[in-house]
Amino acid sequence: MAPLILRPTSPAHGGTAVARDEGKVWLVSYALPGEVVEAEPRGRQGGVAVAATTRVLEPSPHRVAAPCPYFGTCGGCQLQHATYTHQLDLKRQVVAEAWARAGLRLPPDAAVLGMEDPWRYRIRGEFEAVAEARGWRFGFHRMRSHAVLPVDSCAIHDERIERALPAFARAANELRLTGLQNLLLTVEPAGRGLLWRLRENSKGWLHDEYAHRVAELLPDAALLDDAMSLDFWDMTFRVRSDTFVQTNYRQMLVLYRAALDMLQPMPEERVLDLYAGIGTISVAVARGCRSVTAVEENPRAVQLGRLNARINSARVEYLPGKVEDVLRGVRLGQHDAVILDPPRAGCEPAAIAELVRLGAGRVVYVSCEPSTHARDIAALVRGGYRVRRAAIVDMFPQTYHIESVALLERS
Fold first, then answer.
1. pLDDT given for residue 1 in this prediction
2. Which of 90, 129, 228, 300 could be stapled to 195 by a disulfide with Cβ–Cβ 3.0 to 4.6 Å?
3. What is the pTM of this model?
4. Which CATH architecture fits 124-229?
5. Which architecture does CATH list for 1-62?
6. Paired residues of 318 in beta bridges
């Protein structure tokens, strides 16, 4: 098939741009709205035709040369070819469009909170293992593929993670390990700790010998295989590899500040924190209110959350279980405000129904997926809430991922 000449007109969630050609809609990767590009068809995605840019015929004034040698092959970043200010503009358009599709209007004063330095921000990274002729290496999945691309650098990860990768590969090769699957690394933002977890399916796994050899190769790091410390705002938390942590530490503080500024907890108020995880938001909120009830399904996260509440002397009580199930047992009038940060899929309809039944005066909803955020906010609006404020926080520069937060008040 001959290459297509396409002129994308608007951004799409996923880092692509939307183009129309003779009535057919295309999602074009590595193209910016307003450009003219030559593109190669690459099948379909969610029922829509997909194409990849092969040549830029008329570049956007916002186009830049991507600094990463793997950009365009690795599936990790989608927007390195756009200036950072333009990335923020594109993300705002994507959120506004998601809200419009749900029948909502993104507040015109919704801020887009970006980073001064949009590189080296990830404190956690997951790397796939790949066996090459010269031994094990670690990398990422290729764009729209299950094949692994070995990498030696990644400019969005903390440099300590990048420096650690060859040591973990070298130790595996020296010990002739087999069956490696993936490696999860998390660094302490303010400490020497490097929390690691290697998934493997070999017999007779030499865990202690491997850890010892990696430690020898990384003398500046304190290798941790159980838990590490995460400190912010005079609070300290224990984090494990099997529990969620915001990967962008610097922007986590921006996101939490935006959410707390919207929530405005008062000294006599009781607050519900849904999908509470290890309690970072719960403990932060508890410093300004009477008590926090944290709801979380993951038993490991509940265990850590209770520990984190004790460490910080915070008035946080955990209710373990699915949010929609736990909320059925919560009585009316018990809580004045709600804060929630669900996974990408958003809330179950039953959870939204319970929130509407409880009718708390304020709801602050944090989300990492614009479409489900807009869907759930629209459902809350139908249930009697009004959107008061919204903000977009760029937690993942160079990628399409978007974090947003909204304040709703009972009307």
1. 67
2. 228
3. 0.95
4. Beta Barrel (2.40)
5. Beta Barrel (2.40)
6. 294
pLDDT for 3 equals 80
DSSP state of 311: H
Q: Are 411 and 386 in contact (CB under 8 A)?
A: yes
Per-residue pLDDT for 149 more than 80? yes
Domain segments of the chain: what residues? 1-62, 100-115+248-410, 124-229
Instruction: Give Cα separations from 400 to 77, 185, 355, 403 (angstroms).
Output: 8, 22, 30, 10
Q: Residue-wise over 351-379: b if at least 16 C-beta within 10 A, else e?
A: bbbbbbebebebbbbbbbbbbbbbbbbbb
Q: Please list, residue by residue across 76-98, b when 16 or more beta carbons sit within 10 angstroms of its beta carbon and e when fewer do.
A: bbbbbbbebebbbbbbbbbbbbb
Report pLDDT digits (tens) over 341-368.
999 999 999 999 999 999 999 999 999 9
Q: Which of 77, 289, 347, 368 is catalytic?
A: 368
The residue among 192, 277, 276, 284 whose CA lies nearest residue 232 is 284
Q: Helix or strand or coil: residue 67?
A: coil
The domain made up of 100-115+248-410 has a fold known as Rossmann fold (3.40.50)
1-62 and 124-229 share one CATH topology? Answer: yes
Bridge partner residues of 55 (DSSP): 38
Q: How far apart are the C-alpha atoms of 295 and 317, rounded to whole Å?
A: 9
368 counts as catalytic: yes
Q: Are 405 and 262 spatial neighbours (Cβ–Cβ below 8 Å)?
A: yes
Query: How many residues are given for the chain?
Result: 411
The most distant pair of C-alpha atoms in the chain lies apart, rounded to whole Å, by 68
